[in-house]
Amino acid sequence: MLVALAQFRTVANDRAGRRSARRRLPSRAGRYTLFERIGQGGMADIYLAGWLGPDRQPHLVAVKELLPRLAARHRFADMFVDEARLASQLDHPNITRVQELGRWAGVPHIVMELVEGIDLSTLLRQCCVRELALPMELRLTVLCEVLRGLDHAHQAIDDQGEPLGIVHRDVSPSNVLLDFDGQVKLCDFGIALAASRQVADSETIEGKASYMSPEHARGEPVDCRADVFAAGILLWELLSGRRMYRPREGESRIEVAARAQVPVLLVRGLPDEGRLHRIVHRALAEHPADRYASAAAMLADLERWGRPRGMIASIDELAAWLGQHFADLRQARRRARERALAAMERKAPYPIGVTPVPEEALAADWSDESSQAVEAGDDSPTESGPRPVQRDWEADADGADSAGLFVTDGDEDRAADRGAGTSRLGLVAYAAGAFVAGLGALSALSSLGLL
User: Fold this and answer.
1) Which of 163, 229, 312, 424 is positioned for an S-S bond with 306, CB 3.0–4.6 A?
2) For domain 117-320, which CATH number applies: 1.10.10.60, 3.40.50.720, 3.40.720.10, 1.10.510.10?
């Protein structure tokens, strides 16, 4: 019983610690006011934030804040800072723009452009819930835009004209943002390494195992061709509608990645499909020397196949499709932004960053609706409410997917979190039962005069 009670206290203290570490919104971070948590990852939270410019006009941005439990760990803090320094040197329509790097109350922050849209992972999940099929030409359009952003990052040079040697190392659906105007942007260079640091960190395997190249999974040095492999996985999954790495019982996904076994693609009746499959398999070659040497080379082959056959759509067509099927999500984003702008405009006489406004005053002008949704457990990078339950397409016997969707790592993580939560509830129930039983035993012994 004492052990159970001790475990109960540990669980309670852990929960209290997590609650205390969560920001109470709205709150201040330097000159910025953080209004709503719009994303949460393994290293950082992302907030809808605003500030008043020199013209006293409100401006909205996204602020990425390193999690408090990681801010005190120098390696994570350095990685976080490196992300900002690398990304701040990248200026391309297909890469999210970094505007500022700061450290407030000892916690590093990155200020980025605010993308009004959803990530590819959320888009696929929402298509599943709404029983929508994402048209194949739009899938390929998204991938082509990702390759453009990757090529720019890979070719980036410093002020002296020297290559930066940037490798993203985490090209996955959750890091592909789709603006409702049809722009596709690659984000989160949190695991990117410049070539000058690669030797020092070669022992560490980072990133998401579901999109790792074999050399990455084995802990070997990587270059831009590791990102080409990850783009190949994206293409394979967009074509097949299911996950490429599917571990057997007792096998981890990283072990599957290290084996580099690429499943056979199903025939979907696309024009000259054999040529398309050859593009996929070249990108997914086990040995880097056998792959495309660059993202640009893969993009060129894909466009030579797709454009004459009408299999690659325009940005305007992507925007029109998103507007037709996801107008409700766009409206929800706009309402959140309008509330933030209205709150800042009401406080316009008090320059943010010069004369701080009490959080209580801001709270009176800011609806709790959004923050309550977040506190309830929403960890979606783009949804204004909790993620809906999605169907696990991997359970289909034939591996087919009528909507062209698949389950992502985030789904598996949330399932694990739900399992952990259930275990904790079970532990609390067990401790409470043991405590009551103990009191009953003490009462019985007392009545017998044994105490």
Assistant:
1) 312
2) 1.10.510.10
Percent of the chain that is helix, strand, coil (3-state, to 5): 50, 15, 40
**CA 22-23-26 angle, 5° bins:** 150
Alpha-carbon span 387 to 396, nearest angstrom: 22
Residue 244, Cβ neighbours under 10 Å: how many?
21
Question: Six-digit token pair at 362?
Answer: 């801001």
Question: Considering only CA atoms, which of 307, 393, 417 is closest in space to residue 133?
Answer: 393
Quick check: 153 pLDDT over 50?
yes
Q: Is the pLDDT of residue 328 over 80?
A: yes
Q: Reply yes or no on whether the pLDDT at 326 is more than 80.
A: yes
Mean pLDDT score, 398-416: 39
For the ranges 46-50, 269-273, 366-370, the lowest mean pLDDT is seen at 366-370
Which residue type does 181 have? D
Q: Which two tokens stand for residue 54?
A: 């020199």
Strand partners, 167: 193
Q: Is there a cis peptide before residue 26, judged by omega within 30 degrees of 0?
A: yes
State the Cα–Cα distance between residues 267 and 274, nearest whole angstrom: 9
Give the residue extent of every domain in the chain.
23-115+327-380, 117-320
Q: List Cβ neighbours of 147 (8 Å cut-off, separation of 6 or more).
A: 231, 295, 296, 298, 299, 302
Region for residue 93 given its phi and psi (left: phi exceeds 0; alpha: psi -120 to 50; beta: otherwise): alpha
The whole-number average pLDDT for the span 394-420 is: 39
Q: Which residues contact 369 (CB under 8 A, 6 or more apart)?
A: none
Residue 223 among the catalytic residues: no
CATH superfamily of 23-115+327-380: Phosphorylase Kinase; domain 1 (3.30.200.20)
Q: From the candidates 45, 119, 151, 170, give the one annotated as an active-site residue.
A: 170
List the alpha helices (DSSP H) in 244-326: 253-259, 273-283, 295-306, 315-325
